[in-house]
Design goal:
This protein has 259 residues and is an alpha/beta fold. Helix content is 37%, strand content 17%. The chain is built from ten helices and ten strands. It has helices at residues 34-38, 65-78, 92-103, 133-139, 143-153, 159-171, 187-191, 213-222, 239-242, 244-257, and strands at 2-5, 8-13, 20-23, 45-48, 85-90, 108-114, 126-127, 181-182, 198-202, 227-231. Strand 5 (85-90), helix 3 and strand 6 form a beta-alpha-beta unit. Helix 5 (143-153) crosses helix 6 (159-171). The longest helix has 14 residues, at 65-78. The chain is globular.
């Protein structure tokens, strides 16, 4: 079922309140979670297009993680979960999930963070940004060529990942890059405020992963509540795409413990 809440597009599976909500990374969309969602039969899910991505609108205001947090909270509050939802996020979506779990414990029962950014110390001022060259290059191609580029760059990805990934790149609102953005708070600071169970899934820094084993250890020390970190080998920043079997094993094991 597809729907909208304010300017935000989302889709869900199953009847009733969602058990698991998915927040995607930069330049992806809610549809990019389809392969994972299909691997979770019987679980009611909700996937949200972030502002400026997929089919969601783009408010004329600076891009902040607090805004991504509030967007997710708005959608979840519009169809409130019975006893909180497990929020799964990747990259930008993982940081939004951490912000949400830190500030809205009544909405979030547990959180899964797939290779989030570590954040930055300081006051996080608004900064100008520009469209990355790799994204501009992809957006200049037609869909078959974007799929071919994805297959060439990441030959180990399952075939069902490529089309939603390629479609999402053309859906990024180019006006996004006319706005300023505010960097995230340090992930360790957010974990110190999260009291629900946390699963951190990360890959290999040498393959582009953002979380090193050393930083995962710092996260464990900072976490206020139950915390688990799982390193998935042979994976980079898109852990679930690079090594789906081990990602799903970690995710489903964690979800089973939350029931």
């Amino acid at each position: 079922m597809r729907g909208r809440t304010d300017q935000l597009a989302w889709y869900r599976t199953g009847e009733g309140a969602a058990e698991v909500a998915f927040l995607h990374g930069f330049s992806d969309s809610a549809q990019c979670w389809d392969p994972v969602i299909r691997a979770l039969p019987g679980i009611r899910t909700l996937a949200i297009d972030a502002r400026g991505h997929g089919e969601s609108g783009l408010p004329e205001e600076p891009i902040r993680y607090t805004a991504h947090r509030d967007d997710a909270a708005l959608v979840l509050s519009d169809q409130p979960p019975n006893d909180g939802v497990v929020v799964v996020g990747h990259s930008m979506g993982a940081m939004a999930a951490a912000y949400l779990a830190a500030s809205r414990p009544g909405l979030v029962r547990a959180v899964v963070l797939e290779d989030p950014p570590t954040g930055a110390p300081g006051n996080h001022p608004d900064e100008p940004w520009s469209e990355p060259d790799w994204l501009a290059g992809l957006r200049s191609l037609d869909l078959p060529d974007r799929i071919a580029r994805g297959r060439a760059n990441d030959p180990g990805w399952p075939d069902d990942e490529l089309e939603p990934w390629a479609v999402s790149k053309a859906q990024v609102n180019p006006h996004l890059f006319d706005l300023t953005f505010q960097d995230a708070a340090p992930l360790t600071d957010l974990l110190a405020q999260i009291t629900c169970p946390v699963l951190l899934i990360h890959g290999d820094p040498e393959r582009g992963g953002l979380i090193s084993p050393e930083y995962a250890g710092r996260c464990a020390q900072a976490a206020a509540g139950e915390f688990h970190a799982v390193h998935i080998p042979n994976a980079g920043h898109s852990v679930r795409r690079d090594n789906r079997p081990q990602y799903l094993a970690a995710l489903t094991g964690f979800l089973d413990r939350q029931r």
